[in-house]
Each structure stands twice: as C-alpha cells, then as structure tokens.
Amino acid sequence: MPENNPNAPRITIVSFSLSNQTKKLIRAFKEGLASSPEAVQVEHLRLAPTERIPFPFPSIPATMLMMVKTLFRVRIPISELPLAPLRDSGLLVLAGPTWSYNPCGPVLSFLDTYGDLAMSGRPVLPIISCRGYWRLHWHYLKGEILRHGGTPLGPWVFTHPSKEPWRTMGVFLTVAGKHPRRFPLLRRHYPRYGHDRKQLQRAAEMGATLPASMADPEALKGPIVV
Ligand SMILES: Cc1cc2nc3c(=O)[nH]c(=O)nc-3n(C[C@H](O)[C@H](O)[C@H](O)COP(=O)(O)O)c2cc1C
Q1: Same structural domain for residues 67 and 137?
Q2: What is the pLDDT of residue 223?
Q3: Cβ distance 147 to 140 under 8 Å?
Q4: Which domain holds residue 185?
Q5: Cβ 55 under 6 angstroms from ligand 1
Q6: Is the CB of 199 under 6 A from ligand 1?
Q7: How far apart are alpha carbons 57 and 37 in whole angstroms?
Q8: CA-proximal residue: ligand 1, atom 18 (nearest)
Q9: Which is nearest to 15 in space by CA: 107, 117, 129?
Q10: In terms of domains, do 48 and 101 share one?
Q11: Residue 65: inside a domain, yes or no?
C-alpha cells in the first residue's frame, strides 16, 4: 500500500516504453504495489527522449536502420531527471524494452548519466519487455548494474506470447507501421502485437508481493520469465 509514512521502504521505478508494452506492464505492476498490505513509497520516473521517436517507424528502411543502430547500443539522449528519488530509493526498478539484443537507447543514456547515483549500494530489479530474446540484454545490463555498484535482482522478463516465426514477423511489421493482420498467414497465426491480459495480471501479482520480499532481496535473485 503506497503511503506517505517516511519510514516505509522506497521503490523508485524508472521506465521507458516506445510501443506501450512496458507502459502497460508497469501500470499493472503499480496497481499490484498499491494493493499490497505492506507500506511502501513509490516514485515513478519516465525516461523522456529529448527528441521524439516516431512510433511506428516511418518505413521499412527506417526500421532496419534503427535496428542496426541499436545493435551498436546507440544512446538516445533523455531529459533531466529529479535526483532525490534516485538517491533515496531502497530498490530501483528499471523497466524497458529490448532493442536488438540490448537495453533500449534511453535506458542506456540513463545508465551513463545516473547509473552511479541510482544503483550504487542498492538492489536493482530490471523488468524487461521483449518479443522473446532477452538473454544478451540481461547479460549486458547485469554487468552495468555491477559496474555501478548495484546488486542485480531478477530480471523479470515478459515475452510476447505468440509463436515463432509469426512473432518476429509480426513485431517487425508492427514497428515498421505495416499491419500484420493484413497478411493472410499472419491473420491466422499472429493474434496481436505485445503482451496479453494474463501477463498483465501476473505483473500486478508480482507488484503485490514485491514489498514483502524487499526485506530479503536474495529471494528476488534469478530470472522469472512470464
Ligand atoms: C528497434 C527495435 C529492436 C528490437 N529488438 C528486439 C530484440 O532484439 N529482441 C526482442 O526480443 N525484441 C526486440 N524488439 C521488440 C521489443 O522489445 C518489444 O516489442 C517490446 O515489447 C516493446 O516494448 P515497449 O512497447 O515498452 O517499447 C525490438 C523492438 C524495436 C522497436
């Protein structure tokens, strides 16, 4: 139950979402936190790119260019964040999508600029939204958390529930602004882009039980894939 009790543990959520999938997960996660019987103080900081990123991308070549850039971990500059919620939190939840096997550009900028302040000496729980390929992302992120003096927990990973190869085709077409359901085979095999309701429910349940687990962060170590 979020409240103003200054002694309640503080959770700071830092998130970025381009196509609303992390946004939906974090909304459900926060509803879960709010329903928890444990008192907790929650701050949510959204990473805002200084230049708007169009979504969907304007064309297939523009999408492919973005995928190549993100493979090389190109940073996307972000607006300044308030420092107090980063400095004073008891747990940092860092949420965002996988882009070309890496954390997304705004999260990379966050790590560069605020990594020491936000992570040093505290547990960091990543929440990853992806189509299905998160291990390299996690490997890199874990290294960054350790480099900045934090304790990596989780991660909690939410993959798109559709089957391959339709999932990869569906994600590519969606981010390139083409409607997968206009293609007869995909209409049959690809029900939707992104996460389903069951996964959002799970995110809420995970939020509801997180405050009780904060006393023993060791229990939060190890990936959970939903
Ligand atoms: C440029 C780009 C690259 C992506 N690369 C990957 C990837 O390497 N692995 C993966 O599983 N998903 C990849 N995805 C899919 C996203 O991780 C997925 O759609 C995620 O749910 C988007 O979250 P968001 O809506 O919060 O931005 C990529 C998406 C984009 C836009």
Answers
A1: yes
A2: 96
A3: no
A4: 163-194
A5: no
A6: no
A7: 42
A8: 130
A9: 107
A10: yes
A11: yes
128 to each of 8, 116, 182, how far by Cα in Å?
A: 26, 21, 29
> Are residues 174 and 107 both part of a single domain?
no
Residue-level pLDDT at 3: 56
Q: What residues pair up with 12 in beta bridges, in sequence order?
A: 43, 92
Residue the block writes with tokens 């070309």: 100
pLDDT-based confidence at residue 136 (cuts at 50, 70, 90): very high
CATH code of the domain covering residue 142: 3.40.50.360
pLDDT in tens, 68-101: 999 999 999 999 999 999 999 999 999 999 999 9
Our answer on whether the CB atom of 66 is closer than 6 Å to any ligand 1 atom is: yes
Taking a C-beta distance cutoff of 8 angstroms, is the pair 10, 48 a contact?
A: no
The answer to the question of residue 2 being in a domain is no
Residue with tokens 């995110």: 203
Measure the CA–CA gap between 161 and 194, rounded to whole angstroms: 8
SS3 15: strand
Looking at residue 72, its amino acid is: F
Q: Is the CB of 21 under 6 A from ligand 1?
A: yes
Question: End-to-end CA distance of the chain, in Å?
Answer: 24
pTM: 0.96
